[in-house]
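[audit] Reproducing an earlier prediction to check determinism. Same input, same settings, fresh worker. If the tokens differ from the archived copy the diff job will pick it up downstream; this log only records the rerun itself.
[audit] input (333 residues):
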Amino acid sequence: MKPNIKDIARLAGVSPTTVSRVMNNRGYISEKTRKKVNQAMKELNYFPNELARSLYHQRTRFIGLIFPTISNPFFGELVFHIENICASMGYKVLLCNSLDRVDKERSYLEMLQRNQVDGIIVGAHNRHISEYQSIDLPIVAIDRYLSERIPVVASDNFQGGILATRWLIDQGCRHIIHINGPRKLETPANRRRDGYERTIEEHGRIPLTYEIPKSLIYHENVKTVRKIFAERPEVDGIFASDDLLAATVISEAKKCHKPDLKVVGYDGTETVRICLPQLTTIKQPIHEIAETAVQLLVAQKNNEMTDRKKEIILPVELVEGRVQAGPNNIEDS
């Protein structure tokens, strides 16, 4: 049977009220009494109900995270940094993978509110969820527009699109295609496309973007890349909107014997740079994005928001892939 406060009080030889005061650090308690209570708790293997105590103090010290999937290296690394930063500030996280499903996202929003988390950080895609308009919690979005009142933290997607496209042009590419998600998603990531299109037009060329309906689904990526190679055999440069998509392009290009194709990705996670060092990519400041999101959330919680900027944009950089030995230029992308 699970021990309770009365059991601890009986073993320690004190009153239940004294046990409660020790656990909640209220009032004066002698060191001798404190040690007796803690020793009794240890002997009985008793752990206080942290949630109940947090609700009593009206702070749960929990932060809710809603992301599409941490199987994607970008989201995985972002959540890793968020959790570390939260832990250093005394917060724990509740992680929710929405899989881009509206029903799951709504369900997680409801669950997090029922558990009275101190705030929510969202990287999911579904803007048109009415709950985001009325939710009475501190909330921050990462690379997503959820509502007019929710601040957004994002990398400089527009500059990233420019850097990627200029690099391909500098490599001598004449037929450059961009692959991105649907324009209707209303995400800052669409600016990668804007940067690509402006740069292409500035060089007197016609931009061409292929959209992937659901970029988190691998077979959709493969289908789109194969369609590009079938419809545009002249393509010699591709700017992919994320590194996993870029990896798919490289893999399919090898199968189609396109050794001269140049590829640029976007994200620059540690995982991809280790596994695919030859990939040139636009590196997002992932740690800084995580840190900024947590700081914004805590500032809202503490009513310390002095700067009501709707969107905070952080700089990106182009990281050239390392040239690998061998004649196949796809390895040098």
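[audit] rerun output stored. Observation attached for the diff report: The first strand starts at residue 62 and ends at 67.
[audit] end
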